[in-house]
Predict the structure.
Amino acid sequence: MKISAHSVTLQLRVPFKISYGASTTRENVLVSIDEGVGEGAVVPYYGETPQRIISYVQSREVQKAVDHFSIEDLRLPPGESSAARAAVDLALHDLWGKQQGHPLYRLWGLNPANCPRMSYTIPMSDDDDTYRQMLREKQGYPLIKLKLGSGSLEKDLWMVKTAAAEMDGTLCVDANNAWTADQALTIIPQLIDLGVLFVEQPVGRYDMDGWRKISTELPEDRPPLIADESVQGVDSISPLAGLADGINIKLAKCGGLFPARQMIHQARELGMKIMLGCMVETSVAITAMSHLAPLADYLDLDGNQLLIHDPFMGMTVDEHGTLTLPDAPGLGVTPRAE
Ligand SMILES: [Mg+2]
């Protein structure tokens, strides 16, 4: 089969500021395998580059796995990021669906009516008026995810209180590793009073003691604690059982739809909730993950909405956060005219 890869520059509508820093462009990699298309998100804080993904895609080992259609055998060399594997995994899934003549969710037997509603993410801002403006633009949206981890608990709490005052919708928060266990124990009880639906990655990625401390010391009525950075692939779920209440699965972290489905089944067996998340991605990767939405509790697939120009069309979300999956075979994405 014929495989090719090239990078695509994506301009962001507004600088996206989270606790790692701010950025205005991303360069992702698009992969084609015959008429199948896939995408690998280049996440700068993971140390990834487009060139590394492209050389992985063009390697002899990948060509061999692709020729056998064995997604399972897409092995990553040490140090390679899972985004590279995801790009190939997605293109093979798209090709498979096109050959079968059905969208992936249908081939998996999933009911699109079971998709939970989508959240919309508001990044942090140094300027309080800009922040209020970003909130107002999403007034009426039913589920808003606030990025926290400004470095000041006071400021973090201000953001949630401001959003609670400005917005009618439900709030959830993502601290992106920013808090110590003691800080999390200070702020999370106050978030309960503000009706926060869940708290994502309250403590550091490797802070297992922190996870243990907060899961035992927080009150019973706390919102679910969702692990994001602490969860990468399939192997990272079981150490979190009993500490985190759920996991955030992303294609670029786990390596594609094949491992994402494994993770969903493993987490369910452990009684954990499922969130499907994303990086800054085009409608290729966002739509790919959407096909698993009927299996999720929470959806955070808004990475394509951050782009000035999304080169593809696929799944859509309306102003109520309702997701519509495409009817077309495979991923169901098509290139958008310039
Ligand atoms: Mg997160």
